[in-house]
Every structure is written in structure tokens, then in C-alpha cells.
Amino acid sequence: MTDMTDLSYVRTTEAEAKPAPVSTTGFIGWMRRNLFSSIPNTILTLIGIWLAYSIFAPLINFAFVHAVWTGDNRDACLAQNVGREVGACWPYVEAYFPQFIYGRYPVEERYRVDIVYLLFALLIVPMLIPSVPAKRLNGLLLLVAFPIVAFFLLVGGVFGLPVVETSQWGGLLVTLVIAVTGITASLPIGILLALGRRSDMPIVRLLSIIFIEFWRGVPLITVLFMASVMLPLFLPEGVTFDKLMRVLIGVTLFSSAYMAEVVRGGLQAIPKGQYEGAQALGLRFWQMMRLIILPQALKLVIPGIVGTFIGLFKDTTLVLIVGMFDLLGQVQSSFTDPTWASPSQSHTGYLFAAAIFWVFCFGMSRYSLFMEKKLHTGHKR
């Protein structure tokens, strides 16, 4: 008879854990779960790989592999002189780089633009980092002091600085001036319009609706043309506006209409109980909006707000139609120079402009994702 007290067959220690199969962990596991989890996913993955190769392989060859990196004129970028296939002509970009950044701003005064760029970077970077303290002071400096300082630095006429007409501005300078001004001004105007459209006062609601629908129904090209060409015809004799100022006003009003609809979507997403709770606490309308409703509404529509900002930044290229040379316009104007005329000149210029726009737009997009995650906007990424 077996001794029931003999427990020698029972393990006295836990079995050593075995590693998970290689096919389910690491990069291989991620690929199996996300790219090759089923036959349709596998087909779509292979199609995506083929499309990426078809697009990026020629782009890399043009921009880097077959590119020309040194030279003094067009001869360096001609295939018959190089003896091989020629891609991007980067010496042309190097030669025109100052014009792409400053336009026709006087060379001896370009340090003023550099100071403005530096001040903007020093103020905007701490503002975008949540952990940096003194946000209120930083915001006042950025939104109040900086525009005044930048205006007098760029325009001149004070402290012995020569006057530089805005007609001499161009390149990235014009792009950033229009984009930053439009973004900064359109958000508060859009918030007021969104609140006005939801107002209980009929006249305020009607005026807000008319304003929003009018500007949303007119193409931006038409707005710029009207602001630059038609507006002076309706002004009293002797009264005029600087062309850049007219463009800034037109872009701001146009963008604020779209911003109003984005913000209105956020306001409509707030539960009615939030309004009732704020009213039960005895908060006035503006207190309720400032402390309770708007913080939640704006948090919900961060993607829409940033999307509008990105669209506005790209729409700055349309100012060329009214004779202002932004970054893209400055690139196009350089094509008339016979010194650098070559088959790859236009492709190189457009590639450079596209890279600059992509850097700014991608940066805004990634910061939007960061803020969504930071503020927990209701969905996990």
C-alpha cells in the first residue's frame, strides 16, 4: 500500500517562468498584431509599403543621393557638366537663402529681423512647456510687449532706426507675420463669435450668424483681393492702409469665422448640467464661461483649433495674388534668375519651401497631440 504521507513528488518551489514566444513580443509581435494580423491587413500593409517606396525612394534620390551640394552657378547643376544624373541643386538654395528668409529687407538692417525671431523664440518656447512657471507674465510679454517691440524693430522710425517699408518685407518673415498675427487674433475673436451665436439675445445671435456665414462663404483669395484692391476705393480720399495691414485684417476675419464654428462645437459638447451647476453657484455669465465652460470646451476642440491654425499657416501662400512675396512667392520669384536656371531649379525650390512648411505644420500637429494627452481630452491614444 502506498504511503500517503510521502509528498516527494510535490514541487516545493514555483516553476521558473518561461519567456513568451518570440512571435508575440518585441518588434515581431508588434508587426503581427498591427500589420499582419489578418489577410486584409497584410494586403493593405504590402500596398502601403509599395506606395511608400514609390514615393520616398525617388524623393530621397533627388534630395540626397543625386543632389549637387557645391557650386557657384547653374553650371554646377547641369548633367552634362557633372557627368551623371543631377537631383536637387542645393547651392541655388544656399545662394538665395537670405532672400527666402528676409525677402528684400535691407541687408544692413536684417539684424533687426534676427532680434525679432530670437525674442519670439525666447517667449514662445517657455509658453509651450507646461512645467515652466510664470505663465501669466510670459503671456503678457508675448501678447502685449512683444508685438509692440517687434513692430518698431521691423518698421523702424524710432531710436534712429531707418524706416523699412512693408513692401520690402518678404520670404519667411511675411509668412510668420501673417500666420502669427492671424492665429493670435482669430482665436479670441472666434470665441466671442461662438458665444454670440449661442447668445439668448436675438440681435447678438443674428449679427454673429451673419458675420460667420458671410466670411465662411467667401474664398480667401476673394477676401485678399477685396482687401488689397477694392477696399481703398471705398475709403475717403487721402485715407489709406498699408497693404500688409489690409492682408492681416482680411486673414484674421476670415480665420475667426472658422474658429468660431470650431469653438461652438466644443460649447455644444458640454453637458447642460455644467451650465446649471455654475448657475447654482451664483456665477455670472462671464464668470461661468471663464471658469467652467470655456476651459472644458476649448480642451475638447484642441484638434480642431490646431487644424485651423495649420490651415491658416498654409493659406499664407495666397498673399502672392495681391503682390506680397511670402516664402513660396520668394521662391517662385527666384526662378527668373538666369544665374541658377537649370532643369532641377524649380523642383529644388519647391522642395525647400515644402520642407519649411512641413516643419512648422508637423510641429503644431505634434504639440496638439501632446496637449491632448496632457489635458486628458476624453480619449486615450
TrEMBL record:
ABC transmembrane type-1 domain segment(s): 172-369
Q: Which Pfam families match?
A: BPD_transp_1
Provide this UniProt record's keywords sorted from A to Z: Cell membrane, Membrane, Transmembrane, Transmembrane helix, Transport
Q: Name one GO biological process term.
A: amino acid transport
Membrane topology, record value: Multi-pass membrane protein
What would be one Gene Ontology cellular-component term for the protein? ATP-binding cassette (ABC) transporter complex
Chief place where the protein resides: membrane
Q: What is this protein called?
A: ABC transporter permease subunit
Q: Which InterPro entries match?
A: AA_ABC_transptr_permease_3TM (IPR010065), ArtM/GltK/GlnP/TcyL/YhdX-like (IPR043429), MetI-like (IPR000515), MetI-like_sf (IPR035906)
Q: Where are its TM segments located?
A: 42-64, 115-133, 140-163, 169-193, 214-235, 247-267, 288-313, 350-371
Q: What's the superkingdom here? A: Bacteria
